[in-house]
Write a structure and sequence with these properties.
By secondary structure, the protein is of the alpha/beta class. Helix content is 17%, strand content 42%. The protein has two helices and eight strands.
Length: 123
């Protein structure tokens, strides 16, 4: 059943430094900063492509991100292109690119907050 009332979803990542995170996603991962709120900035919306949106918000507790579970899984058309783009910029690669038995070609990175991000395409 199709539910046309739903438009899209966004991941919200709690971080210690919204400004540094927004700058990292812009400079290292190629995202656009499409919205910032607060002085100093405590919330930002980062976008890449037509439908990938990441929101970052100032963390209000001492919890830390998991480096075991993926915080964001991004589907792309050419994962090798993204992999080499990030590698050339010195982004921390958490798992090397490869074809997986579950039918995907993917790789993982860790952002400056320790969040695990996966980039993938169908085989």
């Amino acid at each position: 059943m199709s539910d046309k009332n739903f438009s899209h979803a966004a991941t919200v990542l709690p971080v210690d430094d919204v400004r540094a995170t927004a700058d990292y996603y812009r400079d290292m991962l190629g995202f656009e900063i499409s919205f910032e709120w607060g002085d100093p900035v405590t919330y930002a919306v980062l976008k890449r492509g037509e439908s990938v949106s990441v929101h970052v918000v100032e963390r209000d507790d001492d919890s830390k991100p998991s480096s075991v579970h993926t915080a964001l899984y991004v589907f792309v058309h050419d994962v090798d292109k993204v992999y080499y783009e990030y590698r050339s910029k010195g982004v921390e690669i958490a798992s090397e690119i490869g074809d997986r038995e579950y039918g995907m070609r993917d790789f993982d990175i860790k952002d400056i907050n320790g969040f695990l991000l996966s980039f993938s395409m169908n085989l």
